[in-house]
Amino acid sequence: MTQTRTEDAAYMFGEGKVDEIAAVVARTGAEAVVVDNQVGPYQTYNVGQKLPTGVGVVDRFTLILEIFGQRANTRTAQLQVELAELRYELPRAEAKASLAKRDERPGFMGLGEYDESREQDIKSQIADIRSELDQIVETEERRRESRRESGFDLVALAGYTNAGKSTLLRRLAADHEVDENADRHPDLDRTAESEDRLFTTLGTTTRRAEVGPREVLVTDTVGFVSDLPHWLVDSFRSTLDSVYHADLVLLVVDAGESVAEMREKLVTCHDTLARRNEAPIVTVLNKVDEVDDDELARKRGALAALAPDPVAVSGLTGERVGDLRRRVDRELPDWEHERLYLPMTEDTMSLVSWVHDHGEVETESYEDDGVLLEFRARPSVVDRARARAGRLPA
What we know:
By secondary structure, the protein is α/β, with parallel strands linked by helices. The protein has 4 domains: about 15-65, no CATH class; about 70-135; about 150-330, Rossmann fold (3-Layer(aba) Sandwich), CATH 3.40.50; about 335-390, Ribosomal Protein S8, Chain: A, domain 1. The protein is built from 13 helices and 11 strands. The strands form 3 sheets. The protein has a 6-stranded mixed sheet, with helices on both faces. A 3-stranded antiparallel sheet has the order 9-11-10. Helix 3 (about 60-70) runs antiparallel to helix 4 (about 75-105) and helix 5 (about 120-150) runs parallel beside helix 8 (about 235-245). The protein is elongated. The termini are far apart.
């Protein structure tokens, strides 16, 4: 049911519309009313009073948080969900406290038994969770820098939930055939789930991908959801940092949706990324196996202002994924060229092998007393190679 009108302070809807909702609930035997808006605590109570006993009123954010809570299977995801839930509950606890103090009646208006310490408990829990998440953020930042120093470029998949990010990650990953139960390098996280349902990915999954001569780590992240308040987005800062601080962001959009839906989602994604994003963004029109060439061309033209020069692929079939790899290679930060003459010592071949692993060797020639090495690599790798070469005995 829908209603277009100014929001009613007491009921969200007009009182007559609430009566209509109550009648539908009674006729259908519904167990809950889900409202696609944010409903205040007083409005929730007032609407609930008109419904049959036992029928709950759930607003948009309560539903999203409930689903998030069911899908959170890592410590970071669980903490972020708990933080979002507490931040959502805090104004409701403050409202209960305000009413109870004003009317000197615990449980006034059926808002629950008033515990004068609850508000402070929530604030204390929020502070504790933020402290633990800050430590996780610092650890992840050190890990990102360590990966860059090891020669990896960092690419993040962003976009709406159900856009096919996890499927695309599996397609790009160079290690998707590995045994999921075997011991593995910490950069080879568990395979991302690929399911036709919302909010499947709440944490991050990072996999290796080969992009031309580069070694790239691609991270799948939490899917965006429209019309989320800033406090809810900010609660997932630990996960979104992998997007904000990547070398390149692939913004994945479902090409099978209507132009209006794609436009709305692109705007939301750009608004979210614009807050803190540091990396260039390439739009990826995924699921092109679901549209014909004429429809794809029409959508490209209609979205040109929001998605200039997008890459069209199918993560499911692999169609045009080669084009995406080449585009990623082109968009990532340029490598530096370096030429080193290394004296022949016991440690020289170890350095040569390391450069092969972390860059692209163009020339490797051996002379009587040394090795001439020309290569391209990330600036951090070039700096480390120079430092190691400087420590070799003459």
